[in-house]
Backbone:
């Protein structure tokens, strides 16, 4: 039985939820797409929309995950995620549980966005207790004015 289901998320439009209980460490779904360079992403208007389906692999490459067959593209960001993206046999990406997940819980991971001048463009609506209000990677959240006390 598949571990995930598409549903209408409270965070943003569609998301994935657990279709059954999932154990910590379980590989849930592969993140599939096309490998492109940052330069290609910058030069092609296709990648300039508000909703982004780009996954950064490293300084040179990204995965364009904007394909129907890539259901993992629907996973939203959370400041208190239950999944992470593991790179296995580069560049195969697996969405993996970082804790036990109960049936029906929304699946989420830290999008890993850096803290830069436009962090305010990415408002976070994850709704978790420790939500910092913006989609910024965990290690940089202390830089957001007013959130230092939460860490
Ligand atoms: C890869 S898509 C996720 C799937 C999306 N919910 C959908 O239905 O297509 C990424 C986009 O979802 C939205 N999103 C994801 N996590 C979010 C969050 N925690 N708060 C607000 N918007 C979020 C943002 O617009 C982001 O650019
Ligand atoms: Zn949040």
Residues:
């Amino acid at each position: 039985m598949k571990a995930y289901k598409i549903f209408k998320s409270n965070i943003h439009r569609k998301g994935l939820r657990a279709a059954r209980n999932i154990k910590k460490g379980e590989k849930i779904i592969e993140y599939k797409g096309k490998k492109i360079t940052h330069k290609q992403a910058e030069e092609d208007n296709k990648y300039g929309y508000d909703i982004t389906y780009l996954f950064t692999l490293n300084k040179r490459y990204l995965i364009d995950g904007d394909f129907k067959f890539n259901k993992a593209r629907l996973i939203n960001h959370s400041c208190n995620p239950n999944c992470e993206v593991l790179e296995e046999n580069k560049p195969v990406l697996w969405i993996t549980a970082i804790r036990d997940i109960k049936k029906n819980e929304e699946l989420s991971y830290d999008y890993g966005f850096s803290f830069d001048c436009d962090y305010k463009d990415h408002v976070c609506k994850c709704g978790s207790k420790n939500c910092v209000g913006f989609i910024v990677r965990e290690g940089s959240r202390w830089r957001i004015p007013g959130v230092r006390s939460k860490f």
